[in-house]
């Protein structure tokens, strides 16, 4: 791992840890602005995965030979790293999943179908990713619970805490599930305030931390939430690994999400009993290498410091927004201030896909589409936007090139 300076972020040194960035696309140096979809991986994470397969490859928990013991130790050390990373009270509260989507589906099936009933309300926000909408839609159909949404106000995309308290005070809301940072708007929601309000009115809270986990400090005890989910691939880790954190008492009250090996206590021909969390929710052979890679990503981010990363993200985004606002006919969604590192924008005479294609010709990787926010797009009268999203290895020089390219595109329209 590189030796990194802190505050400000030493981006030039840090970029050497990401060889994928040192290439050309369409004859131009790659500018990777698609970090909200997935981040790049440092050499240390890639090496940790490679080392497991080269030296320690074996299944975990069920063996007593040396390779199995080493694999189990590395797997459980990754769980302990995540425990400390989010300040959970115990590693027994850390469930490895395939990512944020599976974490929410696990929660919807195991908690939602068990505890929700007709007359209950599931409260979401209009800015939620499909992964935090569709599972609850399905649960509502099976349980008779009602879906409700907090309004996103104006192009700035902010929530009204007065509306939240008004809905919670009805006593009908049993679950408040919301995104910490919007992948489309860049809105940083007041998560602690929202969770505290939910607890005051007797509602369980769940935070989708997919866009925040690798960008800013996330402390589940300070946030006062009941559940939190995130993916490894958005925080320098590998794809196919994620985490559901839950308060131990709540996890122990939930039935299994999947069944099979490892999650059982005792199996007879007619009846079985199950282990407690986390094993209860980790049926079958887990993504061992993915968990080890996630642990290495935690090490990498902690060596830099999440406060340092967050400051870098906010400053780079503010710099980009300041320049983008001078582009003719551009419409930018999201907060004017305190805007996290995702910027969605449109030109009235161009489809988002065309913007992304033209940017790619200049070596700039953007994302175009609804960003798994179709309902939110419709709320704004749109079908799609282009999105630039930043991370710890992006620079102001890259932003300058990006803005110059957008100005050229604007003249073509």
Describe how the helices and strands are arranged.
Layout: H1 11-14, E1 24-25, E2 28-29, E3 31-32, H2 43-56, H3 66-85, E4 94-97, H4 100-115, E5 121-125, H5 134-143, E6 146-150, H6 161-168, E7 173-179, H7 191-200, E8 204-208, H8 220-223, E9 227-231, E10 242-246, H9 248-252, E11 264-267, E12 272-274, H10 288-304, H11 306-324, E13 331-333, E14 342-346, H12 352-360, E15 364-365, E16 367-369, H13 374-379, E17 385-389, H14 396-412
Commentary on this structure:
This protein is of the alpha/beta class and 413 residues long. It has 2 domains: 11-32 and 306-412, Alpha-Beta Complex (Aspartate Aminotransferase, domain 1), CATH 3.90.1150.10; 47-302, Type I PLP-dependent aspartate aminotransferase-like (Major domain) (Aspartate Aminotransferase, domain 2, 3-Layer(aba) Sandwich), CATH 3.40.640.10. It is built from 14 helices and 17 strands. The chain has a 7-stranded mixed beta sheet with strand order 4-10-9-8-7-5-6, sandwiched between helices. A 4-stranded antiparallel beta sheet has the order 13-14-17-16, covered by helices on one side. Helix 5 (134-143) links the parallel strand 5 and strand 6.
Q: What are the key terms here?
A:
17 strands; 413 residues; 2 domains; disordered N terminus; seven-stranded mixed β-sheet; 38% helix; alpha/beta; Aspartate Aminotransferase, domain 1; Aspartate Aminotransferase, domain 2
In short:
The chain has about 425 residues and is an alpha/beta fold. It contains 14 helices and 17 strands.
